[in-house]
Amino acid sequence: MVNLQPGAKYKFVNAKANNVADLSGGDNKSIIGYSDHNGANQTWEALPGGNGWIFKNVATGQYLGINGLARDGTPVEGIHPPFEWHVKNDEGHPDTVRLFVPNTLFNMDLSDNGNATAGTKIQVWNKWTPGVNQCWRLVQGTWALAFCV
User: Fold this and answer.
1) Looking at residues 91-95, what average pLDDT do you find?
2) Where are the transmembrane segments (predicted)?
3) Is the pTM of this model over 0.90?
């Protein structure tokens, strides 16, 4: 059962590649799979929506979402305004969740069948089974921003 806490901060860890959903520092827009470096750009605040959850990036204040219609290959991006996701446990992997575009079977997917290479795009794709590259572990924690002077 999904047990998100309003205001809590999470990392999305891909169940197949074991990398995290990262708001790219290259363009401050693309959401990519990247190794975990505990960065604020990899940290998402959970906010309750009307019928789901909104995820706000701690580094930029952008929201995890899509622009336009959901279809296979639509990129997940850092966007404004807030975007609501339906978060559901995966039947085959009970310690993971899938993030669905509301009222669709399109869910967040680490592309190229879960390619672990840093920079692999995260997109939405129609749910498929087993689809481990579409399953995510939500790791709650507190991460500090580190600044170099």
Assistant:
1) 92
2) none
3) yes
